Give the backbone structure.
Amino acid sequence: MASVKVVLRFPAEVSDKPLIYYLVKDFDLMVNILKANINPHKQGTMIMELRGDNLDDGLAYLASRGVAVQPLSEEIVRHEDRCISCGACTAICPTGALYIERPAMAVHFDGEKCVVCQMCTRACPVRAMEVRF
Ligand code: SF4
Ligand code: SF4
């Protein structure tokens, strides 16, 4: 049985639709939600593991509903020499892998918690967070 870990980005117009229910019901997929940040009428993000024999069809269904599907990559590396501790990445990191240590306000990275969703790579203004394939 095939499996894949993916990051799903839901546009605001479908964030309140039961798309995951249809993945299970219509495509017979097993869904393990690792992290979710979903609010009605707002853009949302979900990180999940999918298992089943109809993965491609299920992912194509999500894409047809406007959901951006991105496979989780291998590893995130942090270039500490570039980091200016602006904190932008800590606000969007869904697992707490990036966090601020108070009172020094230093930003730290816990690779054990990272699920390689890549959201920090987009948020970082100095490209301190990078994907290693
Ligand atoms: S890729 Fe970045 S934002 Fe995503 S879990 Fe890892 S550290 Fe957090
Ligand atoms: S967004 Fe980049 S520069 Fe800002 S704290 Fe995170 S890693 Fe450092």
